[in-house]
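Team,

Forwarding the record for the chain on the shared tracking sheet. I've put the sequence and predicted structure together so nobody has to dig through attachments.
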Amino acid sequence: MEKEKFNKLGYHFCNEMIALAHDFFEIANQKIDSIIKKTDSLKKNNDGSKFVNYHELKNLSDDNLKHHLFRIAMFNYMNSIFERGVNDLLKLSIREDDDVKARFIEKFIDYDHHRIKNGQTSIRNTKFELMSQSDRDLIYLKFFKEVCEFMPPPLNWKFFYEISDQRMWRDKNLRFDFNEIKSRRNLLTHRGTHFDEEYAERVIYGATKSKNFTDPQERIEFFFKRKLFTHHPKITKENNNLYTLINQENPIPVIINNSYFNHSFSVLMNLYFKLWNHATKSDHLLVQTSHDLLVSSRKLSNPTYVFLVLDLLNDFNKDFDGQFSSDYLKANHLLAFREMRFIVSKFTDKTLRRNKLEQEFLDYFKISKEPIYKVLVSVVENDLDGAISNLLLCRGLPKSGKNWFLFSDIYENPRFEDAFQVATSPLKRVRKK
C-alpha cells in the first residue's frame, strides 16, 4: 500500500474542510456586522415616523436573504467535499488494498444479481470473464456509485473497511447525526428551504434505538434544546416534536446557524477520520490536522474544534490502543487537554484535573532529553518562562515552526524572538577525531 497517496488524499480533504470553515465564519461575521449597522441606521433614520424608507428596508431584507442563502450554500458545499473525499478514499483503497477490494467485489456481485432479478443483463458476461484483471478493475469502478448505494452509507463504509460495531458506533449519536445531516442536505438541495414531512420522517425513522444507537427521540430533544433545528422562540420552548416544524401556518425555515455548522463539521470530520485511520492504520494525517484545528480554534475563537481534536485523538487511541501513536500525536493530545481546561474554566467554575491518559503522556515527555519536549512540558504545566528558557536549548528548528500551536502562549513574550532565533540556528556537527 502506497501511504503517500493516502496522505495526499487526506491532506487535500482536511485542508478543504478547514478552509471552508474559516470562510464560513469570517464571511458570516462580516455579513452580520453589515446587517446590524444597516438595521441601526434604519432605526435612526426612521426616528419614530410611521413611514420607513422603502429602499433601505428592501436593501436590509435582501441582505438577510443573501446571508441565509450563503449559510445554506456553505453547508451544502461542505457535504459535497465530504462525499467526494470519502469516495476518493474508498476508490484508492479498492486499488491499493486487496481486502477492501475483495469486499467491494462481493457487493459488486450482489448488485449484479439484483440487476438480473430486475430483468437487466448481467455485467459479468462472457466478455467480462475474458477481460484482463486491469480491465475488470475498471469495470468495478465504473459501477462504483451503484455498488456503494446498494448498501447505504455509513453501513457500506463499515463493511468495506471491516470496522467492528464497537469501533464504528463508539459514539452512539453518530448514526442519527449523520442521517440528519443527509436529510437536511437533501431537503435544501431538492425540495426547498423550509422543513417538510419527508425530512421529519427520514430523521425519525432513519435510526432506531439499539445497543449501538441512541434513542432518536432523545436526540431530537437535544437538537431542540441546542437550537439546531430552529431558534424560533415558540418552537424551541419545551418542544420535542419534530412535526411542529412543519405543522405551522407559516412554515419554519431551515437554518444553518453557527452551532449547527460546527456540529455538522465535527460529525463529518469524525466519520472521515474513522475511515482514513482504518484504511491506513497511521496517525500521519491526524498529527497535522489536529494541530491545524487547534490553531483554527484560537484564530476563529471557536472552542468546538478543541473538543473535536480530543474526540479524534481519543477515538484513534482507543481503536489502536496507542499502537500507532507517534510522539507528535501525544504532544497534540497534551496541548488539546490544556486548551480544554482553559475553555472549561472560562465558561464554568470547574477546574479539571488531569485524567489518566494525560498524566501518562506528560510523564512520558518529562523523561525525554529532547529540548523541544522540555518546552512542551513547561507549556503544559503553564511555566511559560520555563518554556522560553528551554527553547534556548533547542537547535535546528524550522523557521516555519514559529506558527506552531506549541508557541501560541509564549509568542508575545518579549524574549521569544531571541529564543526562537537561537532555536532555529543549525545543529553543530561534532567532528570525529
